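Long-time lurker. I teach an intro course on protein structure, and each term I like to show students one example going from raw sequence to a predicted 3D structure in token notation. This year I'd like something fresh instead of my usual example. Would anyone be willing to generate the tokens for the chain below so I can use it in lecture? Attribution to the forum is fine with me.
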Amino acid sequence: QVQLVESGGGLVQPGGSLRLSCAASGSIFNFNPMGWYRQAPGKQRELVAIISGGSTNYADSVKGRFTISRDYVKKTVYLQMNSLKPEDTAVYYCKVDYRLGTVWGQGTQVTVSS
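-- Reply from a regular --
Happy to contribute to a lecture. Here you go:
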């Protein structure tokens, strides 16, 4: 059974940086897409970034500021977030798609505020 555990959220001032981590356990392979999503209060969950094989895609709102990467040995995906803005405040979720379906992490809160 696949499980995801996220870490790295917290409170940061505008312009600051955070790195989120998502560690997977179970039968995850390099070709299984993994991504980060976020949900702000009163809004729908939205895609932030996704990595599949050697390809990455980003939401327009985070391009140039966020970087998704993956350690295939550790089965961990990272989200480096720089130049954070108050509008980046949300619960961030990790997701993986594999042969038996989709698994979500529990979420980690990111708050950008002075």
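Some talking points for your students: The chain has a mean pLDDT of 95. The chain is about 0% helix and 55% strand.
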